[in-house]
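From the pipeline queue, job 12 of 40. The input is one protein chain; the requested action is below.

Action: predict structure.
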Amino acid sequence: MFACPATDDFFRARIDQMIDLRHPLTVLASRMPWQEIEAAVAHLFVRKAHAGVAMADLDLFGEKPQRKTPASEAGRPRVPLRVMVSPLYLKHAFNESDEGVVARWADTPRWQFFSGQSYYEDRPPCDATTLVKFRQLLGDEGVEELLAQTINAAVELKLIKPQELNQVIVDSTVQEKAIAHPTDSRLL
């Protein structure tokens, strides 16, 4: 599926020839239901008219709409939805900031493979502010859908059992407590 003896670009090597395909992140990249994720959240990125009606030809991150007239080549091209979703996974998995995940993405072939790239890119996929705007457009509904797809993939890979999802354990040790410290002025 991944290995290809010849490349489409003579001067660049494919990422799947540069990395270990047995690494957990590369295995997860092949097992994630990317088409289902894109289909589930694509409707969130359709621009709305002032009356609240969806305008199909003005979507922000979905597939490029088909137009009868040739589109202008001016302006920035769209970033694929998978390339925008995957840094959100990587950000939380590796505890990175928005700036950190975008910078590290440009340096890590394994992350680029997870994002669906075929060839190594030495530049970031987007700006960190674009990632923030994407997350705001995604909203709570989109984040819940991404979490559900991640859990479903883990159940299908048999990494967790469905019975483990019946009970939620909340750890409250990180909550701030009302404890007086020895240097507190109230104790004087």
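Job complete. The two ends are 71 Å apart (CA to CA).
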